[in-house]
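lol ok so funny story. i was supposed to be doing the assay writeup but got distracted and ended up predicting the structure for this chain instead. priorities right. anyway since i did it might as well share w the group, maybe its usefull for someone
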Amino acid sequence: MLVIKLAQTGKTNKKMFRLVISEKSRDPFGDVLEILGSYNPHSKELAAKNEKIKFWLSKGAQMTPTVNNLLIDKKVIEGQKAKASKPGKPSEKRLAQAKAKADKKTTKETAPAAAAETPAEKPAEPAVETAAETPAEAKTENA
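and the output, tada:
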């Protein structure tokens, strides 16, 4: 799957970004299919190849939420802004997955406990003492 994303360039305190298209799982700093533009977050300046961006979108390329919002702000594309998750905070999708996993875990834990409480599965308790006791053991207990 092809993704349009930002690749960081520049110095530590003077970050610049390239707008690139590459495979989703590829490193944005490695090989890219094409450089589609650049973005300077300090001056909020976007230099983009609008025709190439629209071409790749028509071919089925996806965008990261940040790139989507940036292109909508700069009127390169039209549409609704995406809700980007903040670093350190789980997204709504991940929260839903975690909740489903927790629910599944609790149902697994309660199911065996409930099944063990049924009378059919309870171990039979001995009603009488075993006959294995010898008379010598019985005498020592009485004394």
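Helices lie at 50-58, 65-73, 92-116, 135-142. The domain at 2-73 is CATH 3.30.1320.10 (S16 Ribosomal Protein; Chain: A;).
back to the writeup now i swear
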